[in-house]
Amino acid sequence: MGKRRTLQELTIKDNFMFGAVMLEPENSRRLLELILEKEIEKIEVSTEKSIVYNPEYRGIRLDVYTKDPDGTRYNVEMQTVATSTELRARYYHSQMDLELLLSGADYETLPEVYVIFICDYDPLGQGKYKYTIDSMCREVQKTVKQVKEDRDMEERQLVLDLVIKDHMKEERARINQLNSRLIEENRLEDLKRSAEDPEFQQQLLEEYHLD
After folding, report:
1. Of the candidates 16, 50, 171, 196, which lies 20 to 30 Å from 6 by C-alpha distance?
2. Where are the domains of the chain?
3. What is the DSSP letter of 110?
4. Which 3 state secondary structure label does DSSP give 133?
């Protein structure tokens, strides 16, 4: 059994110190804003919240559990042991959802839930300071990625851009010709109306065989 450390020897990575610091709502709010990069008006905080539904199944104890006025829940965990981090986050999220949906309630009433692990190690080994894992439809994401990586699609986009630019150039030339003809014939009222009325402008283009 290890020597018990004094309060002065504890760091933010110790459960007691982390919970004590995060129990102050302003500390938790500012931390969440920093991590999630969004404004949070205010939050309610509780620490070491336990969720146990059946003694035969594994319960969880949340280090810091908060909610904001919109009903969004936030769980913040201090992780110092690199064991099944992704699976643990998934399990915590599912257990929190169980508590948030009453019997007979519609699934649409489920609030947003964030499970945040602050780790003193790199959980995915990619050298990032932050990893964000969202629910997604793999097929939709795959389609978007395929389009972006398709060289033929890239070439088609370039051709389309050129066609659009050429069309716009030709259109400007036709309008300039029309305006010149109207000015030459002193049809200034028609010139003004054509600038405001696309249908009338098209009639004039046809009249001068510029369509």
Report:
1. 50
2. 7-135, 148-207
3. P
4. coil
With beta carbons less than 8 A apart as the criterion, state whether 80 and 32 touch. no
Q: Which residues pair with 47 in a beta bridge?
A: 64
| Burial of 99: CB neighbours in 10 Å, binned 0-12, 13-18, 19+ | exposed
| Chain-centroid distance, C-alpha 79 | 24
Rounded CA gap, 150 and 139, in Å?
16
The C-alpha atoms of residue 99 and residue 87 are separated, in whole angstroms, by 19
Tens of each residue's pLDDT in the chain, 211 residues: 556 778 888 888 888 888 888 889 999 999 999 999 999 988 888 877 777 666 677 878 888 889 999 899 999 999 888 888 888 888 888 888 888 888 788 888 888 999 999 999 998 888 888 998 887 777 666 666 666 666 666 667 777 777 778 778 888 888 888 888 888 888 888 888 888 888 888 888 888 888 7
State the Rg of the chain over Cα. 31
Strand, helix or coil for residue 73? strand
Half-sphere exposure of 66 (CA within 13 A, CB side): 28
